[in-house]
Design brief:
Blueprint (H helix, E strand, L loop, with lengths): L1 E7 L10 E4 L5 E3 L5 E4 L5 E8 L6 E7 L6 E7 L9 E2 L7 E2 L7 E5 H6 L6 H4 L5 E4 L2 E4 L14 E4 L2 E2 L18 E7 L4 H4 L7 E6 L7 E11 L15 E13 L2 E12 L8 E14 L3 E15 L21 E18 L2 E17 L4 E17 L4 E16 L3 E18 L3 E14 L2 E18 L2 E12 L3 H5 L2 E3 L2 E3 L8 E15 L5 E23 L4 E23 L4 E15 L5 E4 L6 E11 L2 E10 L22 E12 L2 E8 L18 E9 L1
Parallel strand pairs: 1-7, 13-16, 31-34
Antiparallel strand pairs: 1-4, 2-3, 2-5, 5-6, 8-9, 10-15, 11-12, 13-14, 15-16, 17-18, 17-41, 18-19, 19-20, 20-21, 21-22, 22-23, 23-24, 24-25, 25-26, 26-27, 27-28, 28-29, 29-32, 30-31, 32-33, 33-34, 34-35, 35-36, 35-37, 37-38, 38-39, 39-40, 40-41
Length: about 700
């Protein structure tokens, strides 16, 4: 038996909810309201105990249980260390790992980062991570997706490890993500098909929501903002400024060993363009249940109702914020319901099972120049097991099923089904060397007819010769089955006409990467933390699906090309003067090309930025913080819909250089935040004939009761 307590070194207060784990096993516990823990029924032997809690340095100690010493008591006093504390991630292998031991490239976005940038939508902060860009709401990890009219993302979005299933087009619905209730976001930038299947060939974003705190809490958040008028008089299109506001209230409460939180959010914006307005109600809840140290369960639910304008392109270059004639009143309304559940059972000290399920229901209706509607339901189920077959080897395996029915005027009536099995073996060899070998076999069918069956393997190696240095390399296959939208879409939105192509083939890819991470703490009295991460990569895509306009402007989704996307992404973060100054920067280089026979280069792929640079600098003075952040991208070299006309300047593309600033003040249970987006009011486009966001000023207040 192992018992003990965990406290805060500075204050002596108990640390509630600290994770206590016997390494290389599933024995573990969490500290109670007194900081105490108890792990019973451990066989005699030698072990190593690990204690961790977010925002504090970790603690490890060897221990021996024997007839002479059947009980060991641990007293751990942890030092607060928000920046350099170990980052534990779960997405790459579906089990917990220190970020320094990962064989794949991963970025972690903390709850603190989300708060510092006053984030309402998750996409606002993802673009500051190495290797990540977003083109008109479409996520790109290492340039995998470009822009496909929202009909086929090559990056998969998860919520607590379960697919956050979007519409039949396979795109991401950002407004269902509860940004204020996120514990962290893990971004796997290497291909993830071996663990997560179709749609993950370009990478994975896993949103991990927080559990309820150990004490009752009510949090109120109010955000209001205003857009600037266009700085050119001829672009003025309304007398008043555009306003936006958001109000949300979250109630968290413990229920014995269990916990729950409930969140209600109301968001409304006039937008900075004529059809950029949006109104929504969002109700979210999560319950976490604990039964001794053997069983646990969680249930997550989200319901959102939206009403918004539908944008396609601007009226003209002289009226870039107005809608085209006849579409001024185009709008959409819809509802989305998502329910996830997980039941975990520790079957033995070395075996754990997870039962996962999800239900997704989405309805939307377009009203205006093109009346469309869609009603879709998806169900998902998964059984996952983890087994430690020795102290050096761990196996994760599982099986999943997913079924969907879609009834839509734009797609028709269709059904899809997916079945998959997967496995991953991880092992350690000697000093600092570890490897993971895995694979997945997945079957995908449409309307009861087999569309494709794919097996994708993955091999990854991590070598950690020193505590501060981690080297990694990986090789993986990937695939993506065509979505219902790509197969069957038949629609028109202003000048865009899309016709179906039911003969699409599955995309496949081969991805290779190699990289390193260096992490230093307490270097000298000035530099308290430095972390550097660099990775080079190359991904080859076969039968890539792209929306392709013909000579009449009619768009079909076709397997038009093979492609190679190679590049480099680098990130650096450091902290100076014991937290007085924090800095985070990133650089991404892409070489995205369409290839022919013999790997000859045919052309540059559309909707990718070759260079992408970001930085965030924060000055912390007691309870005050000042922030300056920026993002800079090179000129987009190629688009699909409207080519740049060098003689007239029509549809000209320019580099993006956007600067933002903000300030915050924490006082007792209040947080005040002021932020200015696009300070210098740069005008740019990411998707042709769609103006980037206008400068805006926003203020938020958070009160914790």
């Amino acid at each position: 038996m192992v018992t003990g307590e965990v406290t805060n070194r500075e204050t002596g207060d108990p640390l509630i909810g600290a994770n206590v784990l016997i390494k290389d096993s599933f024995w573990g516990a969490a500290t109670d309201e007194n900081g105490a823990f108890l792990i019973s029924k451990i066989p005699f032997g030698s072990y190593r105990i690990a204690i961790s809690v977010i925002g504090f340095e970790s603690y490890e100690k060897d221990l021996l249980l024997s007839n002479e010493n059947p009980t060991v008591t641990i007293s751990a006093s942890l030092k607060r260390d928000i920046i350099s504390s170990a980052q534990i991630v779960v997405t790459t292998s579906r089990s917990e790992q220190d970020i320094m031991d990962l064989p794949l490239s991963v970025s972690v976005v903390s709850a603190r980062k989300l708060a510092d940038k006053n984030v309402v939508s998750l996409e606002e902060i993802l673009i500051y991570e190495p290797g990540v860009t977003i083109v008109k709401d479409q996520l790109n990890i290492r340039g995998a997706s470009g822009y496909t009219l929202g009909a086929g993302s090559r990056s998969l979005l998860l919520l607590d490890g379960l697919p956050l299933m979007g519409s039949a087009s396979g795109n991401i619905t950002w407004n269902v993500v509860p940004t204020s209730e996120i514990d962290r976001v893990e971004i796997v930038k290497s291909g993830g098909s071996a663990m997560y299947g179709s749609g993950a060939m370009g990478g994975v974003v896993n949103i991990i929501t927080r559990n309820a705190p150990d004490k009752p809490e009510t949090r109120l958040r109010v955000l209001s903002g205003v857009y600037s008028h266009p700085k050119y008089d001829q672009w003025h299109w309304r007398d008043s400024r555009g306003f936006f506001n958001m109000m949300e209230i979250t109630r968290s409460l413990p229920i014995g060993p269990h916990g729950a939180w409930f969140r209600l959010q109301r968001y409304q914006t006039d937008g900075y363009t004529e059809l950029g307005w949006d109104e929504s109600w969002n109700l979210t809840a999560k319950t976490k249940l604990k039964f001794r140290n053997k069983y646990s369960a969680s249930i997550y639910g989200n319901f959102i109702s939206t009403l918004n304008g539908i944008e396609s392109q601007w009226k003209s270059p002289a009226d870039p914020f107005e809608a085209p004639y006849g579409s001024e009143h185009d709008k959409a309304n819809g509802t989305k319901l998502n329910i996830n559940s997980t039941l975990s059972a520790v079957m033995s000290p070395y075996t754990v099972l997870h039962f996962k399920s999800a239900f997704y229901d989405v309805f939307w209706e377009n009203i205006g120049t093109n009346n469309d509607h869609s009603n879709e339901r998806k169900v998902y189920g998964e059984l996952q097991g983890g087994t430690k077959i020795s102290r050096r080897w761990h196996v994760t395996s599982g099986a999943s099923i997913q079924n969907a029915t879609i009834d839509a005027s734009i797609f028709g009536t269709h059904s899809t089904a997916t079945q998959a099995i997967y496995g991953l073996m991880q092992g350690k060899f000697g000093h600092g060397l570890s490897t993971s070998v895995g694979g997945r076999y997945e079957l995908f069918s449409v309307d009861g007819k087999k569309n494709t069956g794919q097996f994708v393997p993955q091999l990854a190696i991590n070598y950690r010769p020193e505590k501060w240095l981690s080297l990694r390399t990986s090789l993986a296959k990937g695939f993506r089955s065509p979505t219902v939208a790509e197969l069957f879409s038949q629609s028109q939105l202003n000048v865009f006409v899309v016709e179906p192509n039911p003969n699409l083939l599955t995309e496949t890819s081969t991805s290779f990467e190699t990289g390193f991470t260096m992490k230093f703490t307490n270097i000298n009295p000035v530099v308290s933390f430095v972390q550097i991460d660099v990775a080079g990569y190359s991904s080859r895509y076969i039968d890539m699906i792209e929306p392709t306009p013909d000579s009449y402007g009619v768009i079909h989704f076709e397997n038009v090309t093979n492609a190679t996307i190679s590049g480099l992404d680098a990130g650096i973060g450091f902290r100076l003067f014991e937290g007085l100054l924090d800095f985070q920067g990133s650089y991404t280089y892409l070489n995205p090309v369409e290839t022919g026979s013999g790997d000859t280069t045919i052309d540059t792929l559309s909707y990718r930025y070759r260079h992408h640079i970001t930085q965030t600098t924060i000055l912390n003075i007691y309870s005050f913080s000042l922030m300056i952040d920026s993002r800079h991208t090179s000129k987009m070299e190629k688009t699909k819909l409207f080519d740049e006309n060098p003689s007239t300047g029509r549809d000209k593309r320019i580099p993006v250089n956007v600067w933002n600033c903000g300030a915050s003040w924490e006082f007792k249970h209040f947080e005040f935040r002021l932020r200015v987006e696009n300070v210098f009011q740069q005008y740019y486009v990411e998707l042709e004939r769609n103006m980037g966001e206008e400068r805006n000023f926003q203020f938020s207040l958070i009160k914790i009761f």
